[in-house]
Design brief:
alpha/beta, Quinone Oxidoreductase, Chain A, domain 1, Rossmann fold, 7-stranded mixed beta sheet, 6-stranded parallel beta sheet, 15 strands, 30% helix
Length: 332
């Protein structure tokens, strides 16, 4: 194994602003502390929170790296004290609280998972952020059960493509919204029973039609805005709505009487500031219940585009255009 250098190249946020504020910097290689591993990064996923952080709207939690990047894949090159989950040289993918846009990153060993058999390191880098998020919100918080109907907003996004596949794999009927014929076709290809072009159809009407008037048992929403109350209309009685972002804004006037009448549960969460122990429990659940599905080929991350680390600004421009289907990944 090659010697670990003292410094590395990272893409840093020079100031809040547009994609071009992402600039290369020389940084010290992080040191793995107790129960941490040091990963030589091969690839890093690009996610919407990275854009929000770059814009100055999503500061890293206390103690986290100021560098963007919430998921990586690569090889373990150093072990912190009492770290024993992986051996040196192991190929891993990991959820990190920041620092992914770099040549090296340190992370608690419990927040890393072995690269699933049959996946490349680029594909593996596209797993953690979306799979941890969907598993926790759709299955743990909203309690999706086999035979229920799941409505996924933003079906062609990284989160959406993951939720569609996981929903179908665990026995749900999946409905998805997307903003073009091409994106709707991709949702169907990934396993959605019906894709709704929200520019041409009212998703509330479409969901009612697809469920014979019942509505969706679980709704995964990252849109917010006027979707909040419309989700109440689209939900089944005793339905559960998991809110994970507010792309159309968090402030809106809502008639919450519908929440009471239909006995709805509205829940939400953010993943980044949660403890290493909490994320480790999610990792363990994924390794037990989802990793076998990935290794069997039943589920596979959809990669839209890759960019070299130095071209992180171009990757962000694609993310902000919403022209992608699936994940965007940086290669190191």
């Amino acid at each position: 194994m090659t010697a670990i250098p003292e410094t590395m190249t990272a893409m840093a946020i020079s100031e809040p602003g547009g994609p071009d504020v992402l600039r290369p910097e020389t940084r010290p290689v992080p040191h793995p502390f107790e129960h941490e591993i040091l990963i030589q990064v091969a690839a890093a996923g690009v996610n919407r929170p990275d854009v929000f952080q770059r814009q100055g709207h999503y500061p890293p939690p206390k103690g986290a790296s100021d560098l963007p990047g919430l998921e990586v894949s690569g090889h373990v090159v150093a072990l912190g004290r009492n770290a024993s989950r992986f051996q040196l040289g192991a190929a891993v993918t990991a959820l990190v609280a920041g620092g992914g846009y770099a040549e090296y990153v340190a992370v608690h060993e419990s927040n890393a998972l072995p690269v699933p058999a049959g996946l490349s390191l680029v594909e593996a880098a596209a797993l953690p952020e979306t799979f941890f998020t969907v598993w926790h919100n759709v299955f743990e918080r909203a309690g999706l059960k086999p035979g229920e109907t799941l409505l996924v907003h933003g079906g062609s996004s990284g989160i959406g493509t993951t939720a569609i596949q996981l929903g179908r794999a665990f026995g749900a009927t999946v409905l998805a919204t997307a903003g073009s014929a091409e994106k709707c076709a991709a949702c169907i290809e990934l396993g959605a029973n019906r894709a709704i072009n929200y520019l041409k159809e009212d998703f509330v009407v479409a969901v009612k039609d697809a469920t014979e008037g019942r509505g969706a048992d679980v709704i995964l929403d990252m849109v917010g805005g006027d979707y909040i109350e419309r989700n109440f209309d689209a939900a089944a009685t005793d339905g559960r709505i998991a809110q994970i972002a507010f792309l159309n804004g968090p402030v809106v006037e809502v008639n919450f009487n519908k929440l009471l009448i239909k006995r709805l549960t509205l829940t939400g969460s953010t993943l980044r500031p949660r403890t290493a122990a909490f994320k480790g429990a999610l990792a363990a659940a994924l390794q037990e219940k989802v990793w076998p599905l990935i290794e069997s080929g039943a589920i596979r991350p959809r990669i839209d585009a890759t960019f070299p680390l130095a071209e992180a600004a171009a990757a962000h421009r694609l993310m902000e255009s919403s022209g992608h289907i699936g994940k965007i990944v940086l290669t190191v």
